[in-house]
Amino acid sequence: MEPAMQTLPQSRLAAVDPQRVAAISGAIAINGLLAFFLIAPMATPMVRPPTEQVIDYFFPKPSAKLEPKPIRVKVKHAPSRLPPPVPRRQLETTVKPPPVVVDPQQGDITVEPADPHSVHPPPDAGPGPAVIDDGKPVMGASLEYASAPPPPYPREAVLDGVTGTVLLEVTVGADGRPTDVRIQRSSGSRQLDAAARRQVLTKWRFRPATRNGQAVPAIGLVPVEFKLD
């Protein structure tokens, strides 16, 4: 029995055909290649990492510099309370022309230019009445101006259009300088009254009144008019 079992495998090995084995192997290889080419397109494609994109910015060259044109705005000015500047005008001042004749006991009083060479009566003058000078100023004299610059017009009075005439009672010393100025009649405006009084007292000069050829103090009225054209 043992010799029969041993000879059986050998007889099977002897029956294997090498050509047949080669043909089967070739068929398997061909099928494997076909299967590879069929499966390869279905494979997951390889994902490439995103590449960095470089962006070049291009700035055009500035053209010629264009300056904006100024905008002109017409502004309508609201009517202002301020009138156009008023040129300084020569204020009209008047003097009562007729000389004042006082009591004959005091002599005739007139306003005339002071003459240092004629402080005494002329030689050919006849003897006059004896006059006693008591030092009191002559009342009601007609004053003559030596220098009378007009007072400045108060600005507020100009803006408000205030006009008027102030009558001043002026006491003039023997040297022609005002020593006292009082308001005899108001112009209706305190500003005009004050401006006239201050100007006459500080800036005006008069020709002194004379009595028997000698300068004496005198009191007279001086009107000062403020007028706008």
Provide an overview of this structure.
It is a single chain. By secondary structure, this protein is α+β, with helices and mostly antiparallel strands. It has a domain of 104 residues: TonB (TolA/TonB C-terminal domain), CATH 3.30.2420. Helix content is 24%, strand content 19%. The chain contains four helices and nine strands, in the order ααβββαββαββββ. The strands form three sheets. A four-stranded mixed beta sheet has the order 2-9-4-5, with helices on one face. A three-stranded antiparallel beta sheet has the order 1-7-8, with no helix packed on it. It has a two-stranded antiparallel ribbon with strand order 3-6. It is rod-shaped, with a radius of gyration of 67 Å.
Give keywords:
229 residues; alpha+beta; TolA/TonB C-terminal domain; four-stranded mixed sheet; three-stranded antiparallel sheet; 4 helices; 9 strands
Q: Give the overall form.
A: rod-shaped
* Arithmetic mean of pLDDT: 69
The CATH C-level name of the domain at 104-115 and 135-226 is Alpha Beta
Strand residue percentage = 15-25%
| Secondary structure tally: strands | 9
So, CATH architecture of the domain at 104-115 and 135-226? 2-Layer Sandwich
Q: Kindly provide the radius of gyration, computed on alpha-carbon positions and rounded to a whole number of angstroms.
A: 67 Å
Number of helices: 4
Please describe the biggest sheet, giving its number of strands, its sense, and whether it closes into a barrel: 4 strands, mixed
Topology as a string of helices (H) and strands (E): HHEEEHEEHEEEE
- Name the CATH superfamily classification of the domain at 104-115 and 135-226: TonB
CATH fold descriptor of the domain at 104-115 and 135-226:
TolA/TonB C-terminal domain
Distance between the termini: 169 Å
Low-confidence stretches: 70-80, 88-132
Question: Strand order, biggest sheet?
Answer: 2-9-4-5
| Secondary structural class | alpha+beta
What is the helical fraction, as a range of percent?
A: 10-25%
